[in-house]
Amino acid sequence: MTLPVAAVLCAPGTNRDNDVLFALQLAGACPVAILTNELLQNPSRINDADILVIAGGFSYADALGAGRLFAVELEHAVGAQIATAISERRPIIGICNGFQTLVRMGILPGSGQRAALGHNTNGVFDCRWVELEPSSQKCVWTQNLTNNIECPIAHGEGRFTCDDGTLSYLQRNDQVALRYVSTNPNGSVDNIAGVCDSTGVVLGLMPHPENHVVRRQHPQSHRGISRGLGLSIFQSGVCYARR
After folding, report:
1. Spatial contact of 200 and 236, defined as CB atoms under 8 Å apart
2. What is the DSSP track for 79-103?
3. Residue 151 annotated in active site
4. Which of 96, 173, 185, 231 is the most exposed place for a label (fewest CB within 10 A)?
5. Backbone torsion region of residue 190, taken as left when φ is above 0, otherwise alpha when ψ lies between -120 and 50, otherwise beta
6. Domain count, the chain
């Protein structure tokens, strides 16, 4: 069986590239990292990718705002190619800085709806483990998930915010893909941790599922406590790409 190719888009300052590559490999994909300068020289690099991933970190040191310069560069280099990928229903995921980038590009939440990822309400960079509840059957990355997931967050600008009309639209259209359980670490409206676009193929989330793909990564693994792996998100996306 030919493995689906997953293109991991990286920029100066992204730092979860290797974690995502490992997660995708475990999930059954053939991952390859592609730098933004490579895309500028050869945008067709992503044409044959079955999955697109925008890695997390601090692209361009968050200059001018988290994800802003990464968004400008991707829009310039491969905006048309990404639009084609969405129309062809190739799964796309943006994690943390990748989520911020997709929001800056207007891809999320999409359909003319606007949202933002603002500073955490506690005013500090927050790094902790959180529990997530999959909440969308539309999103191809979460539609087969039945158990909650635990994974870490690491951000200072992760508070999902939008006006009441947009929130109502996202809720009605089944675009709220993941919600924080028990603890809302950043003050996101409706406990939102991740949203998908109206097609269901594009997911953005602030937590890092790539950092809980094997049980020993969990801080309580030594106690024999079983927690939901973030790997399941990648497995769901890879499974869809094989359709």
Report:
1. no
2. HHHHHHHHHTT--EEEETHHHHHHH
3. no
4. 173
5. left
6. 1
For residues 3 and 1, the model is more confident at: 3
For 71-89, what is each residue's pLDDT tens digit? Answer: 999 999 999 999 999 999 9
By residue range, what is the domain housing residue 186? 5-241
Contact 59, 12 (CB under 8 A): yes
**pTM for this entry:** 0.96
Active-site residue, from 155, 196, 208, 218: 208
Angle, nearest 10°, between helix axes 17-27 and 231-241?
Answer: 60
Catalytic residue among 155, 210, 212, 218: 210
Catalytic residue among 10, 73, 96, 150: 96
The residues, any chain, with a CB within 8 Å of residue 235's CB and separated by 6 or more, are 27, 28
CATH number of domain containing 78: 3.40.50.880
50 three-state secondary structure: coil
Q: Estimate the share of the chain in helix, then strand, then coil, as percent rounded to the nearest 5.
A: 35, 25, 40
pLDDT band at 226 (very low <50, low <70, confident <90, very high): low
127-151 burial, b for 16+ CB within 10 Å, e for fewer?
A: eebbbbbbbbebbbbbbebeeebbb
Amino acid at site 144: N
3-state secondary structure of 229: coil
The pLDDT of residue 5:
98
Annotated active-site residue 96? The verdict is: yes
Q: Which two structure tokens, joined as six digits, stand for 144?
A: 């087969």
Give catalytic status of residue 157 as yes or no.
no
Please state the φ and ψ torsions of residue 187, each to the nearest 5 degrees: 85, 15
